[in-house]
What does this fold into?
Amino acid sequence: MKGPDIDGYPYSWNELQLTVTQRAVSGIGISLRPGSTAELPPLVLPDSESSEATVVREEPVTALDSAGCHHEANPVLTFGEQSSILTQPTEVCAVFSLPGRDHHVPHRDRHYLDVMHKHTA
It folds into this structure.
């Protein structure tokens, strides 16, 4: 770590990003590349296994609905070939988009999860 007095510094390990403010984690993000695998670093989760990074938009939306977790479209990050949802009241943001040319996915016309993030400060 860069030091306890550097606010807003982003730390990254593979797909995981942490932002530290006033010596505490103030933001967390997970970036995915559809058609690949993701793995949390052993420093964060010892014995973690690789997971499929291809998540279609309907999967987390259905899971949120099943769990009774309110969510709505995020108009700030929904435009063009991109869509976004924001959970309430926790304000976790998920951003989805159509796959890029180099993404190996089964359905080219569906939105896939690119990033999820949450900022607390």
